[in-house]
Design a protein that fits this description.
about 60% helix; 9 helices; two-stranded antiparallel ribbon; mainly alpha; 4 strands
């Protein structure tokens, strides 16, 4: 059965069996029937709902959501991501620790690119914390070795598990931070 152009442009009037559809449409047009009940069974007045929706506002584009972190929070975030990448899990029956870097690295080329990008972001965060150029260069060297050797199938993934470039970088950053005077 095909619809005529008139039915598309001007919908038909509801038939006798379509009354429930009209009631459903009415609730969205502001003609709700009956009280509004909350989850505890209490009645809510419509005025309080309107007031609540006016107070509920989301403002997007107001800067970086991570920009207001303290120095300690940034360091904790770097350490947490490095642990997730390098030592989050233990191989059952052994004492060998591995992270999602080793797992994602099993995907040829793409996995290594993803984990290298995350590692580079960690180096960028270290630089934002004030790490000097020589420390950043050494951290970039660790990431480069991890990324290049990690491209080799299977042997590179085993190297990723044992080398732990992100944990090395966090250790380098921690040592440098400990030498800095407290302000």
């Amino acid at each position: 059965m095909t619809m005529s152009d008139d039915d598309i442009l001007a919908p038909r009037k509801p038939r006798s069996g379509d009354r429930s559809r009209d009631n459903f449409r009415g609730t969205f047009q502001g003609t709700a029937r009956g009280p509004i009940i909350d989850q505890d069974g209490r009645e809510i007045r419509p005025e309080t709902l309107e007031q609540g929706f006016q107070e509920l506002r989301f403002e997007f584009g107001q800067g970086n959501p991570f920009g207001n972190l303290t120095r300690e929070q940034r360091i904790a975030r770097i350490e947490a991501i490095a642990k997730l990448l390098d030592v989050a899990f233990i191989l059952p029956g052994t004492n060998i620790r591995y992270g999602i870097d080793g797992l994602i690295g099993l995907i040829p080329v793409v996995g290594d690119i993803i984990t290298t990008a995350i590692s580079l972001w960690l180096v960028r965060e270290a630089r934002a914390l004030g790490a000097p150029w020589y420390l950043t260069a050494r951290m970039l060297g660790n990431v480069a070795v991890d990324g290049v050797v990690g491209m080799v199938p299977f042997a590179g993934d085993a190297f990723d598990v044992m080398f732990r470039a992100n944990m090395r970088n966090v250790r380098l950053l921690r040592r440098w931070l400990e030498k800095q005077p407290r302000i």
